[in-house]
Amino acid sequence: MSRIFVRGGQRLSGKVKINGAKNAVLPIIAASILASEGVSIIHEASNLDDVRTMHQVLEGLGITINYDHSTIKVDASHIQCTEASYDLVRRMRASFLIMGPLLARCGEVRIALPGGCAIGTRPIDQHLKGFEAMGVKIELGLGFIEAKVNGRLQGAKIYLDVASVGATENIMMAAALAEGTTIIENAAKEPEIVDLANFLNAMGARIRGAGTGIIRIDGVTELRGVEHTVIPDRIEAGTYMIAAAITGSTIYIEGIIADHLTPIISKLQEMGVIIDIDENGMRVSAEHPLRSVDVKTLPYPGFPTDMQSQMMALLLTTDGTSIITETVFENRFMHVEAFNRMNGQIKVDGRAAVVSGNCRLVGSKVMATDLRAGAALVLAALAAEGDTEISGIHHIERGYVDIVRKLRELGANIRRGEDVEVQEELSEIKALFATVRPSWA
Ligand SMILES: CC(=O)N[C@H]1[C@@H](OP(=O)(O)OP(=O)(O)OC[C@H]2O[C@@H](n3ccc(=O)[nH]c3=O)[C@H](O)[C@@H]2O)O[C@H](CO)[C@@H](O)[C@@H]1O
Ligand SMILES: C=C(OP(=O)(O)O)C(=O)O
């Protein structure tokens, strides 16, 4: 099994370039299903496991899709199948985002219930509530959903009980081809939603208000493929900002939209990190000790839950005690156990974690339990004394392009490799077989 090995204690320096946002490109690929003519050309489609999974999902629908050097081309003029297999959908929650586009284009879909990171129960009731309001009949089978609409989807007024990113995206895509107007109230405001709306509008959709709590979609009868460049990944950028802060280093982060990073920038500044923004990126510079701060995760423009575990790694090294409150997902503290194995002192009480600073992090064998938890362990390992071996790295590879190479280029002592013990055992077995001659030989 592959592992990431880190020897802590190196200062970082130099420049790192941010790739296209995973959470923007996935809905945009799903939205390309809506184009009944023309080819959608999507640039900055990061080379990530999740993007490859979405590629396979569309291929499974019989759509022509081609992925080459961060550019995806989708020709969805012919859709041969409206079913998404359990095998693909369980791997990645965002595959569920094909439901809205398929309902709008084909009037039916059969899709497995979604999987993804183990960070909470993650229901889909708000997606389904939106589709039902638009006239869709939904049947829940064992692990499957079957949905159908007679004729076109009907525009509706939909109030989301929680400002769900996925539900906002799924409903917005369905509504783009619906008859009449759809209004989504208490919509999510994340930058990835604005990027999706920009893509849809370029395709011919009529969407207003994306990025605010009320989105109005006037349905149109057809959409066409267009060319689009995905926004930079604010969570990848935030992760490298913390890499600089946790190692007391100065690095330059290139290719960002600073506005999307406001909640992360202001928290880090509160801690004493110096951030200089210019037109190409930002210089992040830190000297220890940094100040401890309290953090509460919230939907955008609040502090992102996808940065909570990375922030926890940093708070272990600051000068006092901090409280982190996770309000978005009910089970997103799985990384605490691994941090405590590295000599961290964190106590969890419901949705709050009390993080003791001034911690002498010590290298250890730890396991990534989800994508961001994995990234946070890499960060903690950069600051720890000695060697850390991180398993479960398939989680990290879902969402970070070349994290090992990028950190090594910044000066980190980090490599990706196979588990040494397993390798040693394998070579012993190979050596044993080499000495055994079968009787017939
Ligand atoms: C691919 C993608 O973009 N993933 C992001 C997206 O996930 P995702 O779109 O799954 O997250 P949501 O915004 O939907 O979830 C937010 C909260 O709403 C709840 N909920 C959601 C839908 C629903 O029908 N009912 C319901 O109760 C969830 O359980 C959760 O507690 O937004 C999350 C919150 O910023 C991020 O952590 C994920 O990285
Ligand atoms: C939780 C995440 O992804 P997903 O919604 O795909 O599980 C994430 O990007 O941190």
Automatic annotation (TrEMBL):
Entry protein name: UDP-N-acetylglucosamine 1-carboxyvinyltransferase
InterPro entries with a match to the protein in the record: Enolpyruvate_Tfrase_dom, Enolpyruvate_Tfrase_sf, MurA_subfamily, RNA3'P_cycl/enolpyr_Trfase_a/b, UDP_GlcNAc_COvinyl_MurA
Domain Enolpyruvate transferase: 6-407
GO annotations of cellular component type: cytoplasm
Function: Cell wall formation. Adds enolpyruvyl to UDP-N-acetylglucosamine.
GO MF, any single term: UDP-N-acetylglucosamine 1-carboxyvinyltransferase activity
GO biological process, one term: peptidoglycan biosynthetic process
Organismal lineage: Bacteria, Bacillati, Bacillota, Bacilli, Bacillales
Alphabetically ordered keywords of this record: Cell cycle, Cell division, Cell shape, Cell wall biogenesis/degradation, Cytoplasm, Peptidoglycan synthesis, Pyruvate, Transferase
Cited HAMAP family: MurA (MF_00111)
Active site residues according to the UniProt entry: 117 (proton donor)
Residues binding phosphoenolpyruvate: 22-23
Modified residues (2-(S-cysteinyl)pyruvic acid O-phosphothioketal): 117
Native source species: Paenibacillus psychroresistens
Domain of life: Bacteria
EC number: 2.5.1.7
Residues that, per the record, bind UDP-N-acetyl-alpha-D-glucosamine: 93, 122-126, 306, 328
Subcellular location per the Swiss-Prot or TrEMBL entry: Cytoplasm
Main subcellular location: cytoplasm
Pathway, per record: Cell wall biogenesis; peptidoglycan biosynthesis
Family in the record: Belongs to the EPSP synthase family. MurA subfamily.
